[in-house]
Every structure is written in structure tokens, then in C-alpha cells.
Amino acid sequence: MKKTPSRKAWSGRFGKETDQLMERFNASIGFDRKLYRADVQGSIAQARALRRAGILSKAECDRIVRGLRQVEAEIAAGKLPLTDDLEDIHMAVERRLTEIVGPAGGKLHTGRSRNDQVALDERLYLREAIDRIVSLIERVQGTLVDVAGAHLEAVMPGYTHLQQAQPILFSHYVMSLFYALERDKGRFRDARRRADRMPLGSGALAGTAFPIDREGLRRDLGFAGLTENSLDAVSDRDHLLESLAAAAILMAHLSRYCEDLIIWSSSEFGFVEVDDAFATGSSMMPQKKNPDALELIRGKTGRVYGNLVALLTVMKGIPLTYAKDMQEDKEPLFDTVETLERVLEVFARVWETLQVREDRMRAAIQGMTLATDLADYLVRKGMPFRECHHVVGGLVREAVARGEDLRDVPFEAFRERSALFGRDVYEVLTPERSIALRDAPGGTSRQSVRAQIAKGKRLLRKIR
Ligand code: ARG
């Protein structure tokens, strides 16, 4: 029985055409087309390695390389129809190449499998994606340094449990995000370092039977090293998992800071105002201006977490080595990368254009936030801290009962609690004084924040 010619590279083994339903279900070309540049880059390196191994002649290699560049250009221009029957980007590139260069194109896959090919493509994609993400994080950090510098002296209430705790500098708050992002960058760089291993030459799982010069491939593709074990090389998606985990932690950070800005932009707080260009209105309530950019970033944290959990779950039960389950690694990866890129860009712009209401922040500070300073005052006069805490606690309780602020407590009331109180007690009861005293490195004093900003600038310069 003669079969109708199939477009599938593996159709030799099959007696029937693939069911249309299965074809659609199996195809990854709808999303892995994003890997086309990586696939062409890897294929060019593969052609050169085959040339060095004597499997391709120089003329064949040159034609293949030119052909691959043409395929890349056609895909970039949207001229190559990438239909489901092509299955995935690897097959699509090879098929079009063979149309262009003839049977020599069929030699390109010698000693290579889609298993080491996809492992390579994803590593190439990931390295570039991480570089883009890291530079976007740095853009945010650059903005934060500018905002902190522009509002260096602005004072505000610092919170724990969303209750006023102690006065802080707004710039200190801003720099807290800078250093959280610095760790996020470190996590991405770490993942990138481990992804920086060249897997070609692993074949389907057991390695390649041809004299493929893996070291040459490594150099050609600019990897730091080679994967050490072919079974591991085609099975490993750790670098994707690590990157998705780094992304999830980054989003957790961004989400918390968005939450603060959302609360602070309410009329009750009014500490900040999101620029009109990054807010939206209500279809019904004319007065509304909503901080949607921040809410969307907070909301998108959910899908980034979901992508991590999706891939962890995909990977958890796959017997070594490759199984088609692993095709499910791509959409969470692409979605995370694209989400992060958009989120970081918007987040940077929101901070760049944020209006900071220093007067509202200053006015919001309640005198009670100076209770610690009052206790510290007694410590300096020689009283053990626990006792001071108790004394001040009593003063606070009375003041609260009278509806008074700590700053309004009459001198006699202080003296009743302790003879150590002098007239100078009122001097410690200002936010500026409280802040200035916290001048250990990492504290909220102006000098400390200045040092944080200077170090931040150095960190940014070093990397750029
Ligand atoms: N599209 C496949 C994937 O993304 C490529 C690898 C296919 N390998 C195979 N043995 N069927 O995982």
C-alpha cells in the first residue's frame, strides 16, 4: 500500500497520517516559534561542527549557513507560514532549509536530536532574556537612586503591622527596594551562570556517535562550559526553574512595594500620587483616579507564581530522560519573561513620574512614634531599657486616655513617672531628632541613607 507523502521528518515509521486532532495537540510551533533565532544560531554552529568533523563539505556548509540565514530572515519578516503540521520550530527551520538548499539540508541533523537542540535553544533564549531582565531591574534601581536623592530629607512614619512605628526618611524606604532588587539580580545572574553550559553533542540521550567537536561548538556559541552528562543535559530544566523562582521572588518584592504605593496614594494617606499617565478612571464615578498600573503589577504576581508551580509540577515525575511533558516548559517561561519585561518597564515609569507629597508624610507622623526615643532618653540617663519601656508605656497609656499626643504631655506628668526626666525631654520628641540618632550603618539617618545611595550608585556603575 502506497502512502501519500507526508511533511513529517519521522513519517517513515508510520503507516498512517497523524490525526488532525493529534497534530494540533502535539504541535508546539504556535509558541516555540519564539526560539527561531536561537534555533538558527545553534544550527549554524552545528553545520560548522559537522564541517570540522568532515561530514559536510565546505561548499555544503556554506550553503547551509546561507540557507539558515535566509530562513531566519523569512521568519523575522513573517513570510514563512508556521503551521501546526510542521510540529515545532526545529522541524520548521530544517524543512524550509531543505527547500532552499536541497538534500544537503538533510545532513544538518546528523548526530543531533531535537532533545539536545531544544535544550540548547532554551539556554540561548534564557541567557538573553536574563540579560534583558537584569538591565531592566537596573533601570528601576537607577530611578530609585534618583528618587531617594531628590527627597533625601523627607520624613514619614515607618510602619510595622501597618501601625505607625517610628519616623523614617522616605529615601530610606526607597533604598530598601534598591537592595531587595540587588538580591533579585543576583538570583538571575546565578541562574544564568548555571544555564551557561553547551548541551549539543548529547544527541537524543546517549551522546553523539560522530566526531563532533563540542569544545568548538562551545566557543562558537559563547558558552562558559559544556554539559558534563548527556542524560542530564537533555533532562535538565533546572535553569528554567531557577529563573522562574527568581522571577517569583522578584514579583513578590514588586507586589509589596506596589501595595504600599497603592495605600499611600489613597486620600486617607496622600503620601504619593501616581501620575495621570499611569492611572485610570472610573466609567461611573467621575472623581476616581485609580492606581491601576500598581494593581496590575500586584495582580500579575499570581501568574508568575503560577508559571513556577506549573513547571515544577511538569518536571516532578518524568522518568529520565526526555518525555513530551517537557514541551510544556516553554509557555510558562515565555509568559514569565514577557510579563517581567512589561512589569519592570511600567514600574520604572511609575517611579520616575511619581509625585511625592513631603508635607503629607511629615504631617502624618504621630507623636507616639517617638515613644522609643523617650525610652532611649531614659536609657541614656542610666535606667535599664526594660524599666524605661514600662515607664514610657504608662505615659503612653495615660496620654491615649486623655486623647493627647506624647508631645503634649506636661512636664509634671513626666516627673511623676521618673525623676530622671529633665526639661530637655521635649528635644528628643521630634521626628528629625529620632531619625538623626539612628546613624549606625543601615539605619535611617541622613548620613546612612547618603551612604546607601553612594554604594547603590557604585553597584550600578560596576555592572554597566
Ligand atoms: N517540541 C519539542 C519540545 O519542545 C522538541 C523536542 C522534541 N523531542 C522529541 N523527542 N519528540 O520539547
Describe this structure in words.
- The protein has 464 residues and is mainly alpha-helical.
- The chain folds into 3 domains: 19-110, Fumarase/aspartase (N-terminal domain) (Fumarase C, Chain B, domain 1); 115-195 and 231-361, Fumarase C, Chain A, domain 2 (Up-down Bundle); 366-429, Ribonucleotide Reductase Protein R1, domain 1.
- It has helices spanning 20-26, 29-32, 36-52, 58-76, 89-101, 114-150, 170-195, 214-221, 230-235, 238-264, 292-315, 330-353, 358-364, 371-380, 385-402, 411-417, 425-428, 431-437, 446-463, and strands spanning 155-160, 163-169, 197-198, 225-226, 272-273, 355-356.
- It has a two-stranded antiparallel ribbon with strand order 1-2.
- The longest helix is centred in the N-terminal third of the chain and has 37 residues, at 114-150.
- The radius of gyration is 31 Å and the shape is elongated.
- The protein starts with 19 loop residues before the first helix and ends with a helix.
- The mean pLDDT is 95.
- The structure holds arginine (ARG).
- The site of arginine has 10 residues, from α6.
- Arginine binds at residues 28, 32, 88, 114-115, 118, 322, 324, 326-327.
